[in-house]
Automatic annotation (TrEMBL):
Transmembrane segments: none annotated. This is 3-oxoadipate enol-lactonase. One of its GO terms (molecular function) is 3-oxoadipate enol-lactonase activity. SUPFAM superfamilies: alpha/beta-Hydrolases. Gene3D superfamilies: alpha/beta hydrolase. InterPro entries: AB_hydrolase, AB_hydrolase_1, AB_hydrolase_fold, PcaD/CatD. It comes from Amycolatopsis australiensis. GO terms for biological process: beta-ketoadipate pathway. Pfam families: Abhydrolase_1. Residues 17-243 form the AB hydrolase-1 domain.
Length: 258
């Protein structure tokens, strides 16, 4: 399967260093809203995009592979006339970032890998979720998704945010969501992490039930030469949304250090 032209939004100064934000399974580019103004205000050209099968991007027929998701990213850079970019990816976006760090290092200035994993089993769970979504739609997994994305105290005190994110998941095309579940089902990047040479920051949510720091973020940080790990308190899987100030601070600090 060839690359698809993903839906994107570009903000910030045209001559600024380019930072591309890659989102999680079940999200669209609005998940990065908290990071846009702070980065654009610091002179960065901020690019957000919807993963294939999500948001306003095309929904090609399954199967998808991590190679496909990486090719979509490279095609996006080509379309924008960008040679190299910083990539900030969360969950599935971080998995795409690791693939790019190995297979397209010439296009990656640096990586920020948030709330993600290089191998996220068990495969049977992802196969079952794909089956459920194809049979019942993404609304059937939206409530559980928000339960992983936000800590319970935050969701209870911010019901409007919880409902916004629930609707975001429910709006994802079923086939796109299911096909990306199958990408994660087949993914194992642990052995290739040492090949990544881009300066890398790994950010984990201390209360992330999907990709807890132990067994996920720590393995990535240990596997990538020179990578640094930061764990953010009171953050579940969508840590950039629940703790935007701390995630944004860490991202900016990394970009400026690079």
């Amino acid at each position: 399967m060839g690359a698809v032209r993903v839906h994107r939004v570009v903000e910030g100064p045209e001559d600024g260093p380019v930072v591309v934000f890659a989102g999680s399974l079940g999200s669209d580019l609005r998940m990065w809203e908290p990071q846009v103004a702070p980065l654009a205000g610091r002179g960065y050209r901020v690019v957000r995009y919807d993963t294939r099968g999500h948001g306003a991007s095309p929904v090609p027929p399954a199967p998808y592979t991590l190679d496909d998701l990486g090719a979509d990213f490279v095609a996006l850079l080509d379309d924008l006339g960008v040679e190299r970019a910083h990539l900030v990816g969360l969950s599935l976006g971080g998995m795409t970032g690791m693939w790019l760090g190995v297979h397209a290092p010439e296009r990656i200035e640096s990586l920020v890998l948030c709330c993600t994993s290089a191998k996220l089993g068990p495969p049977s769970m992802w196969a079952e979720r794909a089956r459920k979504v194809r049979a019942e739609g993404t609304a059937s997994v939206a409530e559980a998704g928000v339960g992983r994305w936000l800590t319970e105290p935050y969701a209870k005190s911010h019901p409007d945010v919880a409902e916004f994110l629930r609707a975001m998941i429910a709006a994802v095309p079923a086939e796109g969501y299911a096909a990306c579940c199958e990408v994660i089902e087949r993914m194992d990047q642990l052995d290739t992490l040492p090949k990544i040479s881009a300066p890398t920051l790994v950010i984990a949510g201390a209360d992330d039930p999907s990709t807890p720091p132990a067994g996920h973020a720590d393995l990535i940080a240990d596997g990538i030469p020179g990578a640094r790990l930061e764990v953010v308190a009171n953050a579940a899987h969508l840590g950039n949304y629940e703790q935007p100030a701390e995630f944004t601070r860490l991202i900016l600090e990394h970009l400026e250090r690079v």
